[in-house]
Amino acid sequence: MASKSMILNLSSPEKSLSGIEVQSVTLPGAEGRFTVLSGHAPIISILCEGDVTYITPDGKENVQRISSGFAEVSDNEVSVSAEI
Fold this sequence. Notes:
Blueprint (H helix, E strand, L loop, with lengths): L5 E6 L4 E7 L1 E6 L2 E6 L5 E5 L2 E6 L5 E6 L1 E7 L2 E7 L1
Parallel strand pairs: 1-9
Antiparallel strand pairs: 1-2, 3-4, 3-6, 5-8, 6-7, 8-9
Function: Produces ATP from ADP in the presence of a proton gradient across the membrane.
Membrane topology: Peripheral membrane protein
GO molecular function: proton-transporting ATP synthase activity, rotational mechanism
């Protein structure tokens, strides 16, 4: 059975990654780390310093360090605006 995917958009003044197909995204939320999977309920969260970790459909893990920001999850899309 194929796993469901979602889209990750990560933008900062330094770099922009958009339209990345991912299986999961783990974020450094202000209340602790949390993982977003396909079908996640809509949410907006403040992010603190830490790693944004995402896994692509081929199983590759990627990490982007951030210093702060926020994330919005809606309709299988994760949008992150952050300082790197």
